């Protein structure tokens, strides 16, 4: 689906007088237009990353149910003294049978995150479009002020400086959103690989090894499990 074009914004004036009130409001019509077209791209009461964190954390724990030593290493000595490693093992055992459900939960949150990603792409376009318009107005104001008296030029220059500052902020905001987009895209790639490739192959290998005691099938299941764990860890590292 093609993203909608950024909204049309007013162009800077071709001429300007020396009236101080007019000069002090230079660019106001543009700022009003930017406010009316402001994008709320990707804003949700419940961040889908939070649900994805929880689902992946539970999936990671479930996949470690067969490795008690590793679970103990992940628990502090104080936690082991309080028996938290035993509780963690019990939680892992309970979750192991729910790997499929946990993966479905992760996929649901990933789909919502994909929607947020699409909205943020539009938000970046809007911010960059706004920055370009602000810079055009600032350049035009500088040119218009060249022939004005000193007092009028000073008043206009204050507005020009304000517009350039806003343009810089818009570009910084767009850049920050793009960095977050890159992290979210990598995160979705990890979830997609787990769901589409590794988890089905692992489940098939586990079913085969449960009916036939073949060392090769057991080794394959172990290798796939290791890859799933690695993908989950990599995805978790991308989460806030």
General description of the model:
With 240 residues, this protein is an all-alpha fold. It is 77% helix and 0% strand. Helix 8 (150-211) packs antiparallel against helix 9. The longest helix has 62 residues, at 150-211. The chain is rod-shaped. The relative contact order is 0.14.
What global shape is seen?
Answer: rod-shaped
State the order of secondary-structure elements, H for helix, E for strand. Answer: HHHHHHHHH
- Which band does the percent of strand residues land in? under 5%
Overall number of strands: 0
Rg over C-alpha atoms, rounded to the nearest angstrom: 28 Å
Instruction: Report the average pLDDT across residues.
Output: 81
Poorly predicted runs of 5 or more residues: none
The DSSP helix count reads: 9
Portion of residues in helices? over 70%
> End-to-end distance, in Å?
29 Å
Specify the structural class. Answer: mainly alpha
The largest pleated sheet is described as: none
How are the secondary structure elements laid out?
Blueprint: H1 20-24, H2 28-36, H3 48-62, H4 68-73, H5 77-81, H6 84-96, H7 99-145, H8 150-211, H9 215-237
Helix pairs in contact: 3-6, 3-7, 3-9, 7-8, 8-9
Write a brief caption for the model:
The protein is mostly helical and 240 residues long. It has helices at 20-24, 28-36, 48-62, 68-73, 77-81, 84-96, 99-145, 150-211, 215-237.
Short descriptors:
240 residues, 9 helices, single chain, 77% helix, mainly alpha, rod-shaped
């Amino acid at each position: 689906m093609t993203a909608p074009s950024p909204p049309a914004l007013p162009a800077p004036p071709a001429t300007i007088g020396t009236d101080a009130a007019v000069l002090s409001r230079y660019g106001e019509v543009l700022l009003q237009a930017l406010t009316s077209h402001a994008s709320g791209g990707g804003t949700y009461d419940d961040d889908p990353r939070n649900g994805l964190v929880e689902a992946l954390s539970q999936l990671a724990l479930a996949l470690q149910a067969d490795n008690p030593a590793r679970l103990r290493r992940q628990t502090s000595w104080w936690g082991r003294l309080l028996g938290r490693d035993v509780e963690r093992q019990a939680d892992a055992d309970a979750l192991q049978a729910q790997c499929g459900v946990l993966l479905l939960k992760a996929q649901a949150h990933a789909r919502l995150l994909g929607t947020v990603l699409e909205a943020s792409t539009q938000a970046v376009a809007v911010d960059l479009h706004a920055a370009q318009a602000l810079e055009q107005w600032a350049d035009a104001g500088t040119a218009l002020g060249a022939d004005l008296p000193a007092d009028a030029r000073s008043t206009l220059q204050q507005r020009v400086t304000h517009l350039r500052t806003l343009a810089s902020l818009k570009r910084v905001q767009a850049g920050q959103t793009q960095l977050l987009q890159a992290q979210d895209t990598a995160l979705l790639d990890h979830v997609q690989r787990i769901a589409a490739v590794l988890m089905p192959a692992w489940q098939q290998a586990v079913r085969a090894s449960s009916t036939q005691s073949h060392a090769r099938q057991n080794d394959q299941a172990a290798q796939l499990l290791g890859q799933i764990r690695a993908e989950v860890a990599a995805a978790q590292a991308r989460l806030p």
